[in-house]
Amino acid sequence: MDADIRSEARDAYRVITLNRPEKLNATTATMLRALRRAFEEAAADRACRAILLTGAGRGFCAGQDLGAVNMLDAANADLGALVEELYNPLIRLIRTHPLPVVCAVNGIAAGAGANLALACDIVLAARSAAFVQAFARIALIPDAGGTWILPRLVGDARARALALLAEKISAEQAAEWGMIWRVIDDAALMTEAETMAAYLAAQPTATLGLIKRALNASPTNDLDAQLALERDLQREAGRSGDYAEGARAFLEKRPPRFSGRM
Q: Same domain for 125 and 211?
C-alpha cells in the first residue's frame, strides 16, 4: 500500500486513512490508485465486513493536489482524462461497494475531497469540520460525483448555490441540510465512527449490500421498476442464512449472530 494511504485491519472492519497530513490529504494520482486498491482489497477480504474512511491530521481532504498534475497549462491539460482515470472508478467503487462505508470527516473537506466523503454510505463529521465545493474558484466544475450526489442530498436549489458560489458550510449546516448523517464533538469523532463501523460489521453484511443496490437504483427507476427490484432483492435476502438466523433470534428473544454472507 502507498504510504499516503493507510489501511488497518480491526475486528471485522478496516480503517482506511488518507495520509498526507502536511498537505491536508490533498490527492495525487498515486494516492487515488492506492485508495482504490484499498477498497478493492477490503471487498475481497472475507473477514472484513465494513469500512471506515478518514483523514490523518487536521483535515479530511483538501481535494486534488494542484501541484501534482499539469493543471496550469490550459492548452495542453486534459482534466477530463484525469477525472475518468482516477476519480470516476473510485466513486463508482465506493457507491456500489458490497460493504457499508462510514466516513469520519475530521476537518476540511474541499472539492473532490468533499465529494469523496459524500459518496460514502454514512458520513459523520467533527464539529470543526467544513465542506466546500471549491471548483468554481478555479474555473472548474464539481467532479467526483458532486453534480450527481449533491442535488440528491440537499435538493436542487441548495446544490446550485453550493456549486456556483463555492461557499464553505459548517458541519452543523451540512447535517441540518441532510448532506451528512451526524455531527460529533471533535474529541469523540473517531470513537463514534469506530463504534459505528464495528456495529455494521456485526450486521447481515450481504443484506446491507442488497439495501445499497436498491437505494442506488432508486433515482433512475420508476415505481414499477423499483417494486420489481425490491421483489428480486427480497427473494435473494430471504434465502440467506442470515435471514434464518435473524428470524430465529427474534422468536427466541436473543441477539442474532449474523455471518455477513448470503
A: no
Range of the structural domain that residue 127 is part of: 5-201
Q: Provide the pLDDT for residue 70.
A: 61
Task: Express each pLDDT in 174-217 by its tens digit.
Answer: 999 999 999 999 999 999 999 999 999 999 999 999 999 999 99
Q: What's the CATH code of the domain at 19?
A: 3.90.226.10
Asked if the structure places residue 258 within a domain, the reply is: no
In a domain, 257, yes or no: no
**Number of domains into which the chain is organized:** 2
Quote the pLDDT of residue 71.
56
pLDDT at 26: 95
pTM here is 0.93
Residues 174 and 64 in one domain: yes
pLDDT < 50 regions, the chain? none
Kindly state whether residues 85 and 105 are assigned to the same domain: yes
Please indicate, yes or no, whether residues 80 and 10 belong to a single structural domain of this protein. yes
Q: What is the pLDDT of residue 52?
A: 98
Residue 13 to residue 134: CA distance in whole angstroms: 32
